[in-house]
Amino acid sequence: MKLSEQVIYQIYPKSFYDSNGDGVGDLRGVIEKIDYLKKLNIDMIWFNPFFVSPQNDNGYDIADYYHIDPMFGTMADFEELVAKLKANGIGVMLDMVLNHTSTEHEWFQKALAGDEKYQKFYYLRPPKADGSLPTNWESKFGGPAWAPFGDTGLYYLHLYDPTQADLDWHNPAVRQACAAVVNFWRQKGVQGFRFDVINVTGKAEKLVDAPKGVPSKTLYTDTPVVHDYLKELNAASFGQDVNSVTVGEMSSTTVANSVGYTNPANHELSMVFNFHHLKTDYVDGRKWSRMAFDFPRLKQLLDSWASGMAAGGGWQALFWNNHDQPRALNRFGDAGRYRVKSAEMLATVIHLLRGTPFIYMGEELGMTDPDYDNMADYVDIEALNAYRALIRSGYSHHDAFTIVKTKARDNSRTPMQWDDSAKAGFTTGKPWLTPTNQATINVAHELASGEIFDYYQRLIKLRKTMPIVADGGYQSWRLDDPQVFGYWRTYRQQKLLVLNNFYGQSTTVTLPEEMVGAQVLLSNYQDVNVTAQLTMQPYQAVALLLG
Ligand code: TEU
After folding, report:
1. Does domain 106-166 correspond to CATH entry 3.40.30.10?
2. Which residues belong to any copy of the Glycosyl hydrolase family 13 catalytic domain (predicted)?
C-alpha cells in the first residue's frame, strides 16, 4: 500500500496490556489484543523500545540491541507477534535508538575496560586546562552533558541521561554497527523503523563551547552531515526493501532540512516527526512552564509545514500525541464537557492533512492525562529532574508540581484503558503507573458508544478511499480566523475544505461562494447546514467536498 494511504499506530509496550500479571505490559499482551487493533484498519504499529535495558529512560537506554528484555517477553514471542500482525495486514515498526547506548551496553563496558576500538565509539574528551568540563553543553534532561569516564580523567558525552552515552557517528565502525542492528531486525520481518533523535548524530569532530546565551543544541542539531549518514544507512539497510517505512524523530528541525530528509529523490527517510506545533503551550520555548496554547502560532506552524513540505516534495508524519507528550486533549482540546467533540476535531485536523497520520494508543478513546496529586506518582527521569530544577530555581512545591502535572511524559504513559475496572483491565497485578479516568474512558465504552473510536475508523477509511485525502495538494485557507483552523485539499477537479473550530464556543465562518451547498464529507456533528454563513458548533470539524 502507498505510504500516503497508510495510518500508523503507536504502542508503548510497557503500558498496552499485561499478559502475565507483573504490572507491566508485554509482547504477549499485544498478541492478545490484535483483534482490537484490527478494528481500526491501521497498516503498521510503531513499538517503543523493548530491547534489553536498565530502564533508566524507559527503554531508550539500550544495553543490547539484539535481544528482547525479559520484562517484555522472548524472541519467540516477538516472532509470533510479527507473524500474527502480518496475517492481519499490519506491519511492524521498531524504534532504533542509535544516537546513544546505555552505559551498560557491552560497547561502553569494553571502552571502560580500555578497549581502544570501543573507546572510539563514544565521545571521550579531557577536561579543559582549567579543569572545567570539555564543553559547556547541557543535557536535555537537565545538568551538564558530560560525565566522568571511569577513573580515566576523561569525560563522556551524554545529551540525555548520564546512563545514555552518545555514539560517535564520525566513526565508520559505529555507522556499520548501527546498520547491522537495522539489518538484524529486517531479517526478522520488520519493515518499519523509527530513528530516535537521529538529527543530533552529526556533532562536529571538534566539540566547542556554545557561545554565551546560545543553546548548545544549536551546535549539533540538523548539521549537514546527517543527510550523508542517512543516505549511507538507507543504502546499507532499509533502502533495500521497496516497502520499508522509515521516520526520523527530528528535534528542532526546519522545513528545508525535513524536505531534504524525506524527498524520495534523496534516498534518506520516508518521513519525519517535527515538534514545533507541540511547543505552542511553552512560555518562551521553555517546556517546564504553563500557558494556554498560542492558537495563531499553532495555525501558522501547521500551515507552513504542510505548505513547505508539499512544495518541496517532502513528507511529514502527522501527530498530536506520543509517549513524550502530555495528552493533546488536555493541551489543545477539552478534557471535560467537550472531550468527545474536541477529540474528533483534533483527529480531523491531522487525518485529512497531507502526510501520514500516527495514532498514539488511547488517542482513539479520547484518553486524557491522569489526575495525579503527588510527585510520588511521577516516575519519568525528565519530570523528576525538572521538578528538582524548578524547586532549586525558587518555585514553590505547588507551582512546580502544577507544571509537572501538565507537562510530564508520564501523562501519556499510563496504562491503556480497556474497561472501567480498578486497573482498567490492563493487568491483574499492580500497574507500574496508575490509571485514574478509566470509569468513562475505555475501550469497552468506546466500542459500545460509537463515538471517538468510530470517528477514527471513518477518518482512516477516507484516507484509504479518497485520493484527495491521500495524494491531494495542500493550500492555506484564511489564517486570520480567531477560532477556526482550515485548509484546502485539491485533487484533479475536486476540492476539499476542512474547517476545525478549536474552541468551546460556536462561531460563524463565511464560506467561499463555490462551497455553499457542497457535500458534507465528514463532520463530528449531525445536520450541517452548508450556507454562506456557516455556523460551527463548539469544537466542530467539518469537511466539505466539491466535485
Ligand atoms: O526523545 C527526544 C527528545 O528530545 C525528548 O527529550 C522529547 O522531545 C522530550 O522529552 C519532549 O519533552 C527521544 C525519545 O522519544 C524519548 O522518549 C527519549 O527519552 C529520548 O529520545 C532519548 O532517547
Report:
1. no
2. 10-413
